[in-house]
Amino acid sequence: MTEKYYVTTAIDYVNGRPHMGHAMEKVGADILVRSKRARGVDTWLVLGADEHSISVRQEARERGKTPEEFTAEMEVIWKHFWHRFQIDSSAFVRSSSEANRATTDEFMRRLHDAGHIYKSTYAGWYCTSCEQFYPEDELNSDGTCREHPHLKAQWVEEENYFFRASTFEAQVRELLERPDFLEPVERRNEMLQAISEGLRDVSISRTFTDWGFPLPFDPKQVIYVWFDALLCYVTGVGFGDDRERFERYWPCDVHVIGKGITRFHTLMWPAMLLAAGVELPRKVYSHGYITMAGEKMSKSRGLFFDPAQLVDVFGSDGARYLMARLFPFDRDTDFDLEACVDRFNADLANDFGNLAARALTMVERYREGLVGERTAEPPELGLAAAVGGAVAAIDGFAFDEGLRQVWRLVVWANKHIDESAPWQLAKDPARAADLDAVLYNALEVLRLLTHLLRPYIPTAAAELAGRLGTELDGVPWAAAIAWGGLEPGLRVRSGDALFPRLDKAAVLAGD
Question: Quick check: is 22 catalytic?
Fold first, then answer.
């Protein structure tokens, strides 16, 4: 049976438009899935909308809409945003959907019947943006939330239903002690510290809102937003309505999330699955933030860059490339528009774009656009090392390193052309074979790059493959990365610049 790989990203609050962190996360997950698929793996990628939050209800009210009207509109906006970034998802799950309600009712029934749910009174500090209670020692000294320092936590007291998560403390701790379950290691250490203080029971219902699924055994209370949001991960792969798909793809191979919600995904989520008798996910990858001036982006404080503008300025492929190249997945990194322009011009316009333009143009000029005879792989190319490094980096969520590995081939090809000077060889009929070899080497590197860069810049990769007269789909991975795949006699064509150089001053001025 074909290997499978199931990836999810965070189920996002849709009280506003996507921000840079959302874009970085989805692009990273999409690169991973596209790379796996190119290697013959059967992939499934789920995105979703977390709709039952208080913040969503408040935003809907401010706009004079019902929560249902507002979330339906936001679904269109968010899906369009992911389309602009070429996120190739298999399913988009709304937490308020009937499919997710069926999943939620089933999980609640299982937990309730097994005695994992009880009723009690809760009093504590509540962050309305996180939708989470916090002990006082986990707030800032001024009573604000650490994730939302502009927002003071509110004191809430109510009678709720609780999930007896503490029952599963030993099993969750054992899971966290596995070095491959939660990455990077800094986040794993944080969660090991959190569980060292015990795994607390979790309040899983609310009475101060009616926006949410009613409890199947007490319709006067609604289910806690985080409970039904996490269940989107099993809903998105067929739990409850497509048993064959669920059995095919579950357990999830990796949940890709932001570091601010690591606790839910590594403490609460495994306990929920254990209680319901569902197999645990294999990995959680908790990425860093894109910051400005060293702080988390915030519209209210003027620390914000709209990721939609990134596509407007750099194009979809360019925006994806910059997300992967400039913002390492495992840490916080400051956003700098000037650095984005410089990297775009240096890497995509100059290195890669110029390589494609001059190689294709020279074949048209000197060989009537026809590919010459195959050459042996140049010994100094280091193809196997570059490919192996690029693939390993993607699998390890080091997308920036993956691009550095691929760029070894770009640099080699440009240097090969510069040192061989085909424009001089073309003047000497006796050097025709040498000219053919230089041109074939350049074209073959371009063919290899279409496969290696496809996960990052899918549209440009497909366009370049078309100019080379080759295909991307249906090519076995071993053949895709083996030297000599470009067939002699194919007709190539040049075209417009794949990545036109940008005027930095104009971009920075907003022109």
Answer: yes
